[in-house]
Design brief:
Elements: H1 2-5, H2 12-20, E1 27-31, H3 38-51, E2 59-63, H4 74-83, E3 91-96, H5 104-114, E4 117-123, H6 131-136, E5 141-145, H7 151-157, E6 161-166, E7 172-177, E8 183-184, H8 186-196, H9 202-205, H10 209-235, H11 243-255, H12 263-272, H13 287-299, E9 303-310, E10 315-325, H14 328-335, H15 342-356, E11 360-366, E12 369-376, E13 381-389, H16 393-405, E14 411-418, E15 424-425, E16 428-432, H17 433-437
Parallel strand pairs: 1-4, 1-5, 2-3, 3-4, 9-11, 13-14, 14-16
Antiparallel strand pairs: 6-7, 7-8, 9-10, 11-12, 12-13, 15-16
Helix pairs in contact: 2-3, 4-5, 8-14, 11-13, 12-13
């Protein structure tokens, strides 16, 4: 067991969350897009158990992606686990990609009742915790959302080490070193992160464009075909039946990350640009049809939607939210590697970093202006603008204006790749975006 995990790289953000809930009643459910590291996280947790004295015989791990368990139903699943329970010992159950089995929740609930056990589950689709399941396990599970690598994790996974260095002016900056001890420009690593994204598997194949595209194609195809189209067939649903329409919606959302988007605008654009001209059924797809397809993409964790919040009215708005793609490398795979639209790509990266740090995120509206993100948690609120450069006077005025309208005393900052010499404008902080991404938490 230890030999299986010795080469796995740490995902401390998530492992610490699992350890915090170890031996507590809730079922631990790790969710996230395919191949973002959920299976590896379960192995890291098993390694932690063994290192803290739990015998291997008290750990049972099943990966339902394996053909060995493909024909297993919930009753045979229950019998299989029961036969392996060590009498009068606490068991630790790890079930990977459990959503493949119908009525899995019946078996899991029985494990909780019948055995002294601690249960860990992963799933690559939010259907795993749909309303009927979450009601069934109400109050008895905790969800841990997992995302592709942060920039800091990306640096570590690719074999670089960060060290603090003192600049001539006394400021502390981080520098990256390769395995030979040579300095590598952090800006070059960030360019690679913007290009290839944060799927952990890319670290195994290296930063080669053709190899990365092959890996990302595998992720995309698995999400679209297995997690959406096949799942719909297994459920007996007829909502997501048009593979071409699904792919066109994916392309539209990927091309419009960070833009105000409504379901009606998706439909209108697909029709006006003749992107649906080869469909057997001509005409405009109904808004409810678009809603079903977008909902499936959100369930598979490929896209996340962000609502708008009226800062003065203190209420969420029902119209014109935004969508962000879970990994910027996947967007480059879909649309091609390009330099345009880098501002929205930076927004995409900041959005998911805020989620990793435990914030709820909304788009801010104040009068006719917009604040890129309002980030809140139990202890704080932040208003955040993102731009490539603060060197231009026009850009500074544009980015500062919405924040200057906000009259409360919560933190306000602008993240940019070129923040300039001023670190504050009337109390609004100007921060280096890369330094912010590398902050230790």
């Amino acid at each position: 067991m230890i030999n299986q995990v010795k080469d796995l790289k740490a995902r401390d953000i998530y492992l610490k969350k699992l350890i915090a809930f170890q031996d507590k009643e809730p079922v631990k459910v790790v969710t996230g897009i395919r191949r973002c590291g959920k299976s590896s996280l379960l192995k890291l947790m098993q390694k932690h158990l063994i290192e803290t004295g739990i015998p291997q015989e008290q750990i049972l791990s099943i990966n339902f992606e394996s053909m060995e368990y493909r024909e297993m139903d919930y009753m045979s699943f229950y019998r299989y686990v029961k036969e392996r329970v060590v009498p009068e010992k606490r068991m630790y159950f790890f079930f990977d990609e459990l959503q493949r089995m119908d009525q899995w929740e019946d078996a899991v609930n029985s494990f909780r009742v019948d055995f002294d056990c601690d249960i860990y589950i992963t799933g690559s689709n939010a259907y795993l915790l749909s309303s009927e399941y979450s009601t069934y396990l109400s109050g008895r599970y905790v969800e841990i959302r997992m995302y592709p690598l942060s920039f800091r994790e990306f640096i570590s996974f690719h074999g670089y080490e960060l060290k603090n260095c003192t600049l001539p002016d006394g400021r502390i900056r981080k520098r990256a070193y390769n395995a030979s001890g040579e300095i590598v420009e952090i800006e070059d690593l960030f360019d690679a992160y913007m290009r290839f994204g944060g799927m952990p598997g890319i670290a195994d194949i290296g930063l080669d464009q053709d190899a990365a595209l092959t890996l990302l194609d595998g992720v995309y195809s698995t999400v679209v075909i297995r997690d959406i189209l096949e799942r719909e067939r297994r459920r007996g649903q007829r909502q997501i039946t048009d593979a071409e329409l699904l792919k066109k919606i994916i392309m539209f959302l990927a091309d419009n990350i960070g833009n105000n988007t409504s379901l009606n605008s998706v439909s209108n654009t697909l029709v006006s640009e003749n992107m649906l001209q080869n469909r057997a059924t001509q005409g405009k797809p109904a808004t409810q049809t678009i809603a079903a397809y977008v909902g499936a993409l959100k369930e598979s964790y490929l896209f996340y939607d962000v609502k708008r919040f009226d800062i003065k009215g203190k209420d969420y708005l029902r119209t014109l939210g935004k969508y962000y793609i879970v990994d910027i490398g996947l967007r480059n795979y879909l649309l091609g590697f390009r330099n345009r639209d880098s501002g929205h790509a930076l927004e995409n990266i900041v959005y998911f970093e805020l989620l990793r740090r435990g914030y709820d995120v909304a788009i801010g509206k104040i009068d006719n202006s917009e604040v890129d993100f309002i980030a809140t948690n139990a202890n704080e609120k932040k208003y955040i603008q993102i731009t490539e450069s603060m060197l231009s006077e026009d850009v500074r005025m544009r980015e500062l204006a919405p924040l200057q309208k906000i009259r409360d005393n919560y933190e306000k900052c602008i993240l940019s790749l070129r923040p300039g010499f001023d670190d504050s404008y009337d109390g609004i902080r100007s921060l280096d975006l890369i330094d912010w991404l590398l902050e230790e938490r």
